[in-house]
Amino acid sequence: MAPYGSDDSTTADETDDLRAGRRRAARYVVPVAVVGVAAATIGLVPALADSGDPDLPKISAQQLIEKIAASDVEQLSGTVKITTDLGLPDFGGLENSLTGGGGGSGSGSGDGSSADPTSKLTALATGTHTLRVAADGEDKQKLSLLENAAEYSLIHNGKDVWGYDSGSNEVFHATADDSDGKSKREEVPATPKDLTEDALKAVDDTTSVTVEGTAHVAGRDAYRLVIKPKDSGSTVGQVTVAVDAKTGLPLKFTLTPASGGAAVVDAGFTQISYAKPAASTFDFTPPKGAKVTEEDAAEAPERHSGGSGHFGGSADDEGFAKGGPDGLNVIGEGWTSIATFDTGGQGIPSGSEAGGAFGGFLDSLGDKASGKFGEGTVFKTRLINALITDDGKVYVGAVTKDALVKAANEAK
Q1: DSSP-assigned letters across all residues of 232-266
Q2: 309: three-class secondary structure by DSSP
Q3: How far apart are CA 239 and CA 265, in angstroms?
Q4: Which pTM value belongs to this model?
Q5: Among 293, 292, 339, 287, which Cα is nearest to 312's?
Q6: Neighbour count for residue 220 (Cβ, 10 Å)
Q7: Domain formed by 318-411, architecture
Q8: Is 351 in contact with 379 (CB distance < 8 Å)?
Q9: One pLDDT digit (tens) per residue for the chain, 412 residues
Q10: Which three-class secondary structure state does DSSP give residue 165?
Q11: Do domains 12-294 and 318-411 have the same CATH topology?
């Protein structure tokens, strides 16, 4: 489809404006997922688009980014479907064997709670899921994950954050951080808005941004914003965002890999309303007999803000660097940036050395690699790849195997 608007890509002169626009975009709708776990990629299945594309006034990429940044939607409710296809092999019960957990409705491993979002929301990293979301300003959000015969809800109401797993009748309670009204746990990008915010952080002079056509999403007229890496070597093909033509809210997010095929991350509302949700939506009282686990603030990991960890960053991207292990460095910039750190000489054992289910899992993910750096293993998904050398150095990014090997060779 031909570009829809006057620009077919960003120019160097527009870069500063785009960066300013995406900084403003970081404030454009309160997050629905207020507590969560750092996740490499979590996405949403595409909303069912209506037939026929709407006839909307022409708009440039810069104007559309500014529209997203200026969006003032704070009240909404709707249904989202979630699918993620990273191309991982079947875990075949490996997860339970490693964690000791008993599945999604069990009490989890160790002293943890099945209602703790740190473990519960990792389910969104694979497969297809349905979410109900609601928001009413900065202090009230709710996300509910619908399962076969159970429901998991994450509720932020004022200073209280509650997680409730109906399958196990367990409750997790945390107090929102005074500095930003959210828990110290990191957010999960669980709506098109969250995912778009991350994608906009990657917009720089290594990125092409265009407006390509229109669409109907969840009954709303929308523009299609397309974000593409300019340089080769990235595993990201393009990001497409359907933006509500009236409100500026991202309604659908799709990330397709450079290798082609089905989307890795596909995001969209199937139903949305901008009406104020009922106050009772955000009320929660632990049910009778429920096991309640309180978050230990002293042990909760600090949140970090900013950074382009999901889609790339530069060596001076402070948020990205602070979010990783000690000694983390970032090689390159933009979509082909590679994070690297040293584990201290401890490499990854081969499948035969690891043995059992874990050994088979390692073999199914890894490809042997060698070069000036020595030898190592490349662990692959359809988006994020990592080279772990036999002497314990790690290179990871949304880049190809060849790019990782080149980075390791040049580091010698």
Answers
A1: TTBSEEEEEEEEETTT--EEEEEEEETT-SS-SEE
A2: coil
A3: 9
A4: 0.72
A5: 339
A6: 22
A7: 2-Layer Sandwich (3.30)
A8: no
A9: 434 443 444 454 555 555 544 443 333 222 333 222 222 222 222 333 344 689 999 999 999 999 999 999 999 999 998 788 888 755 444 444 333 344 444 444 345 688 888 777 777 778 788 899 999 998 999 999 987 778 999 999 999 999 999 999 999 999 876 444 444 344 556 678 887 887 787 788 889 999 999 999 999 999 999 999 988 889 999 999 999 999 999 999 999 999 999 999 887 899 999 999 999 999 999 999 999 999 874 344 443 333 333 333 333 433 333 344 557 899 988 889 999 998 876 655 554 454 444 445 555 567 899 999 999 999 988 999 999 999 999 999 999 999 999 999 998 7
A10: strand
A11: no
Residues 6+ apart with CB under 8 A from 16: none
Going 34 to 39 to 45 to 49, the CA torsion angle's sign is positive
Contact (Cβ atoms closer than 8 angstroms) between residue 80 and residue 240: no
Residue with tokens 């772990």: 388
DSSP structure string for 85-125: ---PPP-TTHHHHHH----TTS--STT--TT-HHHHGGGGG
Buried b (16+ CB within 10 A) or exposed e, 390-400: beebbbbbbbb
Closest to 167 in 3D by CA, of 184, 153, 181: 153
The span from the CA of 38 to the CA of 43, in Å, is: 13
Q: What is the DSSP string of 374-386?
A: EEEEEEE-SS-EE
Residue with tokens 């191309």, as numbered in its chain: 87
| Structure token pair of residue 160 | 């209280």
- Report which residue type is found at 248: G
The residue extents of the domains of the chain are 12-294, 318-411
- The helix/strand/coil state of 220 is strand
The DSSP annotation for 295-308 comes to --TTTSPPP-----
The structure tokens listed for 157 are: 């109401």
Enter the tokens of residue 121.
């929301």
Closest by CA to 154, choosing from 288, 37, 33, is 33
CB 114, CB 163: distance < 8 Å? no
Token duo for residue 235: 């595993």
d(CA 8, CA 410): 35
Element housing 198 (H / E): helix 192-201
Please tell us whether the domain made up of 12-294 is placed in CATH 2.50.20.10: yes
